[in-house]
Amino acid sequence: MALQEMPKVGLGLWKIAKEDCAQTVYDAIVAGYRHLDGACDYGNEKEVGEGIAKAINDGVVSREELWVTSKLWNTFHAPEHVQLAVEKSLEDLGLDYLDLYLIHFPIAQKFVPIETRYPPEWFFDPTADEPKMELAKVPLYQTWHAMEALVEKGLVKHIGVCNYNSALLHDLMTYANVKPFALQIESHPYNTQEKLIATAKNYGLSVTAFSPLGALSYLELDMASANESVLEQAVVKAAAERVNKTPAQVVLRWNIQRGCSIIPKSTKLSRLKENLALFDFALNDSEMDAIAALNADKRFNDPGDFCQAAFNTLHPIYD
Ligand code: A2P
What we know:
Blueprint: E1 11-12, H1 18-31, E2 35-37, H2 45-57, E3 67-72, H3 79-93, E4 98-103, H4 140-152, E5 156-162, H5 166-175, E6 182-186, H6 194-202, E7 206-210, H7 216-219, H8 234-243, H9 247-257, E8 261-262, H10 269-276, H11 285-292, H12 303-311
Parallel strand pairs: 1-2, 2-3, 3-4, 4-5, 5-6, 6-7, 7-8
Helix pairs in contact: 1-2, 2-3, 3-4, 8-9
Bound molecules: adenosine-2'-5'-diphosphate.
């Protein structure tokens, strides 16, 4: 039987290069990871599938012991394209069901056929003289109803959303026939998102924090600088010393302890193990509060910034 609960720590697959991906996934499963968080847009689902297949073939794990998440890309929002998209992800992953399928962004872009380009990414036509994002007129409720059909067909066990704000969640709850299982959002001590998380929990959603180490995720993309690292904060270092763990483990544990799942990415075996070893210590109330007080509503992953900077298109979704 498929897993009923999403394991608290998953391996985030964003930015894992194809050439490292199968081995990283395999190593992570051997190290004890049972939750993999991927997406069409990460461009590595075939390699993720290779890592999973090797782990299953070697007898490390069974399919049913794994929780595999993927995400519907923006260009597949139209109801007639949603099943196409999940079937492509399933084929690449070598699986016959996903545990969780999420709407990646509340942004509907014009359809790009799989044969034309995959993953389609942000530009409608990257070869155009001035490439831009092009939007499709598809309301989110239509996409959601097509996601619901995937559950009915047994292609996915659960469905959910990413990068929604509270207003979109309230709206979703007015029309959802299949209740959203999870909300995935950027969250770390510089962006604690307390109100949004409380809203999601009030509706019974599970909340997953992406980029749980904050700026670290964005250094390799030149979207943050090293001096923005939360691991350098005195309160984090002091807690790390008290519990005899690394600053990264303290920051990750903080998110778990306040009730979120986390999906840190690493391609280094020692860090993969470090990021999973979060359950033999606890932060005390004053440490939890002091880390939460670092909040600066700092968003590193904001379409309002990167769509303009990298994709020549103004498209804010948060104000
Ligand atoms: P690396 O893969 O070299 O370990 P994300 O926020 O997208 O999950 O990415 C996390 C970033 O932080 C990655 O760049 C990863 O790099 C790095 N990282 C992951 N785990 C740790 C850790 N325990 N300590 C320091 N850096 C880490």
